Fold this protein.
Amino acid sequence: MQVKTLGVPSPPLVDWEIFEGDVRAAEVVSESDASELRIYDVTFAPGARTVWHSHTTDQVLVITAGYGTVATESEERPVRVGDLVVVPADERHWHGARADAGMTHLAVMTAGEDDF
């Protein structure tokens, strides 16, 4: 068993191709922790977001701070702290902070591939 503390220290600034803008992210649960589960702690500065993408597995986003947007090709929804979003496998989407507020979420998924 492992016990981890989120947000201490804050996630490092990252330059991953999936992000646009100032984004800090940390892999909280990695392949070395669990063979199938992945959890990322992601903080978006105001206006930062992901690019359009999809995953080969379902993804759950748990909004832990701030305000943001989650969009698919057919809808765009505002999200805030306390919201939980389920994105089915292979659904093209993006998520990020509003222009006037930052947002933090946990991204939870099983091992799989991303498609940009």
